[in-house]
Amino acid sequence: MSSSKEEGATKVKGNTPKTSYYDYIIIGAGAAGCVLANRLSENPENSVCLIEAGGSDKSPWIQIPAGIFGLYGNKKYDYAYKSVSQKHLNNRTITINRGKCLGGSTAINSMVYIRGSNEDYDHWADLGCEGWSYEDVLPIFKDLENDQTGGDANFHGVEGELSVVNPQDVNEASKRFVRAGAEAGLSENSDFNAGSQLGLGIYKVKQARGKRVSAYSAFIKPIKRRQNLRVLSNTKVLSIDIDGGVAKGVNIKIDTFDYKITCREEVVLCAGAIDSPRLLLSSGIGNKQELDELGIECKQNLIGVGENLQDHLDAMVTVRSTVPESIGISWRTLLNHVVPSPFQYYLQKMGWWTTNYVEAGGFAQTKYASGNAPDIQFHFTPIFRSHRGKKFEFGHGYSLFTCLLQPQSVGSVKLTREGSQLKLRIDHNFLASSQDELVMIEAIKKAREVFASAEFDSVRGNEMAPGGNVQSDEQILEYLRATTSTVFHPVGTCKMGNDDLAVVSPKDLKVKGMRNLRVIDASIMPSIIRGNTAAATMMIGEKGARMILANQQSKQEET
Q: Is 78 domain-assigned?
């Protein structure tokens, strides 16, 4: 029938598609969608269809941790969206890496397991999102986890599907970075998900037996033989079929064929902060004035769709070293590291192929931070990078990415018309806020402070970026405008809340004005969390599933 390995929709004949029926249609097999599909299909009476635009996750690039180097920008696995010109970044466009396969972005990310700060979720509650405080969500995180690090049981669970482990073979340079923090006032932190985030440490990772654990491998592969679960890959959702405030189903394309799938109960958008608003807009849900200009019939006027785009911004400090301690290809590492690496990995799950790229990192406060929560995050990589755009370089060194955790600059995801086609218009609006500029300048200084530690004396080399000639605040800001980019953590474009820009209700994640359409993914975050967003998005998937199942139970009791 198509390139999709699973059946679930029937071929269009003429202009009238035959219809396949499911109780629940889930759009997007990423962090939230996979969790949701698992939970809804636990009841054999629920027929569930999980739709993913990308293909298989079986590639070694995905399974082997170090394969991350072959994923970013790879059109087979990465949408690699482009932003519009960023007027505060010298009019540069920014590449936005998003996963394009089963598992979504959890199949191409660095596997770091970070939940965010306690304060993040309490802030959501303060914004009117009742039921989303840290006290509310901590048990959900614990239920998802299979923590194998010996973490505090007050903060970690061991009976969930998501394997969280210590890295297999941490590079010595990463350990050196953690030790270096002491001279910069950053003590070692062995668990960023228990108590305070502040300090430096080796990141916990989502892996099992030396292989990547994505949302798909954790939550779908073990249960993919359920007769009531259908997974459609290589399947593009064109629009949601909406009539009178009811989502009737979805219109899809597989290869060159159009199909229609009809839902009996609900359609759930789990396509992420870029594609969830895109699908709402293309289906007639959004700002009526903007939809009218695009020639799209407005089915529900919600001005917040696509607004409130928030993302972490980061910049790089990198040092070249003549000492072959870090991961890198040179004559001195060819025989003792490079050549043996595949054998070490497949036989022992050791060696350079086990690296997740950002092995270490941590959280810190600049002078602009308030309270006890951090305002910057570090991602340390024991690999030499002289320039952001280069994927590979010979030689040795180490790099530190400094991340702005609470950006004040807010962007949007919109549609624009080019002839007969609708195109994405992604505008982060990075560094529009002077506060963001100030924090990022201090972040670079803090990174340099860590690298200035005596711990690095034995491997010290030349700073390649920003470079020794970049010292004043003005020079650092110029460097930031020329090089800074996204950490690939977009959120917030279908935010939950009670204000005019809110798209979904915090109590059930239903799209406002719609009877059976929900958004359950990172786009519902009203504000961005402090840290990598994958774990929080899985939590949203679990909490959303419980909302749906509770609603289902309530309806059954009524009948």
A: no
Q: Phi/psi at 444 (nearest 5 deg)?
A: -60, -45
pLDDT of residue 16: 36
Residue 13's pLDDT is 38
Residue 300 contacts residue 510 (beta carbons within 8 Å): no
Of 341, 485, 334, nearest to 396 (Cα)?
334
Residue 10: per-residue pLDDT? 40
Q: Which of these, 509, 537, 551, 424, lies nearest to 144 by C-alpha position? A: 537
CA distances from 281 to 223, 235, 272, 322 (A): 33, 19, 14, 53
Active site residues: 489
Per-residue pLDDT for 14 more than 80? no
Evaluate if residue 12 carries a pLDDT over 50.
Answer: no
Listing DSSP states for 39-91 in one string gives: HHTTSTT--EEEE-SSB---SHHHHSGGGGGGTTT-TTTB--EEPPPBTTTTT
Does 85 map to a domain? no
Q: Tokens 């790099």 identify what position?
A: 399
- pLDDT computed for residue 516 by the predictor: 97
Per residue in 159-207, pLDDT (tens digit) is 999 999 999 999 999 999 999 999 899 999 999 999 899 999 999 999 9
The secondary structure of residue 522, as a DSSP letter, is: G
Which CA distances in Å does 554 have to 128, 394, 450, 557, 558?
A: 24, 61, 55, 5, 6
169 alpha-carbon distance from chain centroid: 24
* Closest CA relative to residue 326, chosen from 246, 270, 382, 366: 382
Closest CA to 437 of 407, 393, 402, 469: 407
Name 269's bridge partners. Answer: 27, 519
Query: In terms of pTM, does the model score above 0.90?
Result: yes
**Amino acid identity, position 438:** L
**CA dist., res. 463 & res. 446, Å (int):** 15
d(CA 21, CA 410): 39
* Any domain includes 121: no
Number of domains in the chain: 1
Sign of CA pseudo-dihedral 39, 45, 46, 52: positive
Give bridge partners of residue 268 from the DSSP assignment.
26, 518
DSSP 8-state symbol, 107 = G
How close are the terminal C-alpha atoms of the chain, in Å? 39
| CATH number of the domain within which 356 lies | 3.30.410.40
Residues 66, 67, 73, 79, CA torsion sign: negative
DSSP letters spanning 206-247: -EETTEE--HHHHHTGGGTT-TTEEEE-S-EEEEEEEETTEE
Cα–Cα–Cα angle for 366, 109, 416, rounded to 5 degrees = 90
Domain for residue 342, yes or no?
A: yes
Domain that holds residue 399: 171-202+313-406+434-473
User: Residue 202 is which amino acid?
Assistant: I
- Two structure tokens written together for 20: 């396949």
Closest by CA position to 267, among listed 257, 252, 287: 252
What is the pLDDT averaged over residues 13-20?
45
The per-residue b/e assignment along 167-189, b for 16 or more CB within 10 angstroms, e otherwise, is bbbbbebbebbbebbbebebeeb
